[in-house]
Amino acid sequence: MIYIHPRTDVLSQKIGEDTTIWQFCVILPDAQIGSNCNICAHVFIENDVVIGDNVTIKSGVQLWDGVTIENNVFIGPDVTFTNELIPRSKAHDTSKFKPTLVKKGASIGANATILPGLVIGEYSFIGAGSVITKDVPDYSLWYGNPATQKGYVTEEGVLLDMDKRDKNGVKHVLKIDKDDQVS
Fold first, then answer.
1. In this structure, are residues 71 and 89 in contact, taking their beta carbons and an 8 Å threshold?
2. Average pLDDT over residues 8-35
3. Model confidence pTM above 0.85
4. What per-residue confidence (pLDDT) applies to 183?
């Protein structure tokens, strides 16, 4: 069952089962939202946006044309996405929009800003308040302004240093390490 709060403006019919959309959201007609998502209050989703399954989008997020969110992604409160590098008032040229992809399992902390045309890697973790200016590799931990890589993260959310050791000094092998061994 889909729950759409009565105080929303949801124009899209492309919403998966068991998704919840809370009050004061605006979702334009061509937006696609997967199953079992939680779209919190005060979220705006434009037309050319695709959201996968099991996604949480916290309050105050705007998803502009060209943003794709894969499955099992967490978007923290007030995360800011952009879709044009040099926006100008009253100059609406969609050919200048740059698509942004947030890959499966990624987590983006509160108030992070994501510049347009970037890929946020699988299971990566972006710290609160970070400004992302370049692609974020799979399983990597980024924070700061501008954000830089500070370590790695496991699929379960265990933070690792740059040597892939957890806070107890235990070294972890990530999927990206296994992929490198296969090639």
1. no
2. 98
3. yes
4. 44
Mind giving me the DSSP string for 154-176?
-TT--EE-TTSB-TTS-B---HH
- Nearest C-alpha neighbor of 79 from the set 148, 12, 125, 37: 125
Q: 3-class DSSP state for residue 180? A: helix
Confidence of residue 91 (pLDDT cuts 50, 70, 90): confident
Whether 46 contacts 27, CB under 8 Å: no
From first CA to last CA, the distance across the chain in angstroms is 44
Determine contact, residues 174/141, Cβ cutoff 8 Å.
Answer: no
**CA–CA distance, 103 with 106 (Å, rounded to integer):** 6
The whole-angstrom separation of Cα 57 and Cα 69 is 10
* Full strand arrangement of the beta sheet holding 50-51: 14-15, 32-33, 50-51, 67-69, 100-102, 119-120
> Is it the case that residue 175 has pLDDT exceeding 70?
yes
Encoded tokens for 54: 């099991």
